[in-house]
Amino acid sequence: SFFFDTHALVCVLEENGFTTQQSEVTVSALVKIMNTNLDMIYKDMVTKVQQEIALQQVMSHIGGVKKDMIILEKSEFSALRSENEKIKLELQQIKKQVVDEITKVRSDNKLNLNLEKSRVKELVSLHAQQDRALTQTDRKIDTEVADLKTMLESHKLDTIKYLAGSVFTCLTVALGFYRLWM
After folding, report:
1. Residue 158 or 2, more confident
2. Alpha-helical segments (H) within 16-47
């Protein structure tokens, strides 16, 4: 409600030429208009109790979302851990295959090298012109051995890069989740 001296307003109106009845009707109409306007203003305003209730509801929703996020984070971390274990097993299998392949290549090369050397020695004893062929064969063998060593080093580096990439990828994802939720 809005309070002001209605009697004083009636007196002012009467002094300015209004009759008592006109003054009272005018003041009554003004009071009704002001009360209606104030009621409309109050209707749009939020009370402190309503504001606190809304705040509690929002805080409750935030708490629920936070719990859901923690649950999601744990399940995502668990999935990431199992994926990491799977990758680790695959890397171990690949490493074993590479080691087996390297061992096989080395033994084949040793056998081939020994066979090639013995064949070259026989050719040297049979013919004097085979000296040049022996030198070329030794060079080929050395080149193949060097190529194989280079290939083995390359495979080692690729395996190390893959392992490092996997580890850094897992660390990056874990740190991302850590930063996201902290």
Report:
1. 158
2. 20-44
Report the alpha-carbon distance of residue 25 to residue 33 in Å, rounded.
Answer: 12
Q: DSSP 3-state assignment of 47?
A: coil
Q: At what angle do helices 20-44 and 6-15 cross, to 10 degrees?
A: 140
- The 8-class DSSP code of residue 91 comes to H
What per-residue confidence (pLDDT) applies to 130?
59
The conformational region for residue 4 under phi > 0 = left, psi -120 to 50 = alpha, else beta, is beta
Contact predicate 173/65, CB 8 Å: no
Q: Which residues contact 155 (CB under 8 A, 6 or more apart)?
A: 98, 102
Using an 8 Å Cβ cutoff, are 114 and 125 in contact? no
- Percent of the chain that is helix, strand, coil (3-state, to 5): 90, 0, 10
Is 26 in contact with 18 (CB distance < 8 Å)? Answer: yes
What is the reported pLDDT for 181?
76
